Amino acid sequence: MKVTVREREGVTLLDLEGKITIGVGDVAMREAVHSALDRGSRNLLINMAKVSTIDSSGIGELVAAYTTVSNRGGRLRLFGIPPKVNDILQITQLITVLDILEDEEEGIASFRSGSA
Amino acid sequence: MKVTVREREGVTLLDLEGKITIGVGDVAMREAVHSALDRGSRNLLINMAKVSTIDSSGIGELVAAYTTVSNRGGRLRLFGIPPKVNDILQITQLITVLDILEDEEEGIASFRSGSA
Amino acid sequence: MANRHSEVLLSIGSEFENIELIQAVLDESLQRLAFDEDARYWIGIAVREAVANAIKHGNRQDPEKQVEVELFVESDEVVIRVCDEGQGFDPDCVANPLDPENLLKPDGRGIFYMNRFMDAIEYDFGAQGGTVVTLRKRLGASSVDSRRGEEERG
Amino acid sequence: MANRHSEVLLSIGSEFENIELIQAVLDESLQRLAFDEDARYWIGIAVREAVANAIKHGNRQDPEKQVEVELFVESDEVVIRVCDEGQGFDPDCVANPLDPENLLKPDGRGIFYMNRFMDAIEYDFGAQGGTVVTLRKRLGASSVDSRRGEEERG
Ligand SMILES: Nc1ncnc2c1ncn2[C@@H]1O[C@H](COP(=O)(O)OP(=O)(O)O)[C@@H](O)[C@H]1O
Ligand SMILES: Nc1ncnc2c1ncn2[C@@H]1O[C@H](COP(=O)(O)OP(=O)(O)O)[C@@H](O)[C@H]1O
User: Fold this and answer.
1) Fewest Cβ atoms nearer than 10 Å: which of A68, C41, D43, D145?
2) D–B contact (≥3 CB pairs within 8 Å)?
3) How high is the ipTM of this complex?
4) Which atom of ligand 2 is the closest one to the Cα of D58?
5) What is the DSSP string of A90-112?
6) Distances (CA, A) of C62 to C12, C14, C47, C66, D6
7) Ligand of minimum distance to the alpha carbon of D82
8) Which secondary-structure segment (H or E) carries A6?
């Protein structure tokens, strides 16, 4: 898994690429989220477009990241959900819990207006 | 392995694609050569450009095809040898035994003039 | 056992990165059994979960302990069996990850995935310890699970 | 055995198409060991030959008989061991495929390939039958064989 971190209009963007799976990808995602929080970011936007596989550990990390960011008074949102990841989010019923936007523009705009 | 058979200027062209390996590819190549001989072809030109792997059985079939065609008074020639297949032909010292041409034009021309 | 065929056995050390080895063999095998790309994807996800559990909960990531994966065809099903050297557990006590109080929990979705993406899963526990999970999928069942997801969306 | 690690065991039925399963695991393993694409290709060729011989000459394509492939790292080498349930043979009696009288023979190049593409190969025969061929390649040895070919061309 590859994580690229960008800043745009006060939002920290994490572009994820590859497999968010146990032992490797899940850890990389956690570390990226935590170091963004440590740098003071409170608006996090994750680009899922290039995620090929997410196993239950990956989903778990995503949920944990969402909770951690919320607990610190921040907001974590997702965009660019590929069809198979979308299926997983449906099946786990997380689709209604997590904040999901269509694309990067919509994602950035959602933070501008204050809510999704 | 995929074999495509074409006729051009009295030459039967076999375009091979994929792995010429034991149990599958080697058999496919043998059958293609034999059915060309059965149809009366005596000028056979094999396009190796898309061969990804050739194991010792594949090399064996190539040699057997060469011998069979020669014994029936025909000629079997090769062109478009990829670097890794070329390495194998070097190592097995078949590079000097088999009739190898650069490309399809040179291959077709070699039959026109009567020899390579 | 009578009509069991296409048997493959793979044994790996208990490291998560070895899941990719299983995935490689599985994908090649399923392709040969004419499962389409979607079906291979979802079966792959289920098997990854079974192997991850064997490594994590069963063998507790002890690289000396092996995880064994058996793959074979029996009548009209592909059967994948994952065995570890752990202490076992009580499958009846596994919580439902869809219960509202579990929805935001970071774990507890692995067995749920397996149930969701396979036709049947079954747990067996050796008398001397060790967990065996058997996953089954009907041959020719093309990407049922992806469609299931589809239905729910509507 | 002391410093043996990254051990993987794969067991297949004696059908040629199963060579692809071995190739899949091997490639994934070698990639992880940082062998470059060329090195992986040539090691793959050598292992295919060993497995093909186990299926063909060892187990005589009896699908009930298994071919076992072990893969591990020992000190600075990757070791691949291929075992069959056959009758064995005398490696000293294998003809040299480069001898002029053998050059146009359709077979007899498999062991030659293995020798050529690996750093070392060794045959062992079980007291109860069965052939074990052990192939070794130094880690970090990048595409030596392709270069060997290169040299000879000059
Ligand atoms: N192979 C196994 N050995 C021992 N315990 C297991 C095994 N597989 C699953 N479990 C138990 O079942 C629980 C639920 O597993 P699972 O649904 O995969 O979620 P998770 O692995 O995220 O906890 C695990 O937390 C563990 O206690
Ligand atoms: N695993 C094996 N079991 C029994 N005999 C073998 C085995 N491997 C090789 N041999 C013997 O060694 C000979 C040479 O093998 P090889 O160099 O691979 O060429 P080929 O397989 O084309 O004959 C084979 O013909 C066979 O007699």
Assistant:
1) A68
2) yes
3) 0.86
4) 3
5) HHTT-TTTSEEESSHHHHHHHHH
6) 11, 6, 20, 8, 12
7) 2
8) strand A2-8
